[in-house]
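Provenance and format

Records in this collection were gathered into a single text stream. Each protein contributes a sequence line and a token line. The two records reproduced below are adjacent in the stream.
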Amino acid sequence: MATKRTMSDLQLLENCRIAIDNLQKETDFAIKMAEFGYDKDAVQEGKALYDKARTSYDDHIRHKDLLKKKVYYFKEAKS
């Protein structure tokens, strides 16, 4: 059974960005998270994954918008 989505992809990406920023800026938080295995290397790996996911998301949105425009112009030309 599928679970109901509670947030959009963009909201999830934003939450990830905030978490990574907090880990990079707040030393007390970073020290505590390092105790759980989220050290500087893990944070950098997460940042790289976030950057890749954000780029992919942005590319998808641009592609979707382009397709919408093409469909609109096609319909206009056809009528």
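Adjacent record:
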Amino acid sequence: MRTKHVVLAVLFLMTGSLIGELQAQENIKAVMNKCITMDNVDVNRIRSKDRTIITVTFKNNDALMNEISEACRKDEPQAEHISESKKNGKMVPNFYRFDKGSFSIKVNEEDNSVSATFVEEKGDSFYAPKRTQRTVK
């Protein structure tokens, strides 16, 4: 009976970890996918077998900037690293790093343009070494 409880507890922890990993950047990803369908947003998407990079650029769209900021706040608990700065009295996201990707945003105040880049890594962790290291004897 005790072994059954231990096995169930381990299974529960592993499942929770996997689900948290899958939901790590879902709000940012949803906003970026929405940007792809918008007419007044320029999009550049690069896809490979192990990575997708989406860059969106837009001007004079405070509503979209607020939506991106809100998505970042929602995904903040799953981020491993966060960089923000204060612009015009409010905090603006600069960079978010997740286990399997990252998100960065640059605001150009001169022409009120915004460029946001979302990187999603498929497979192993985004920051895991890609090849094995050889030891020299």
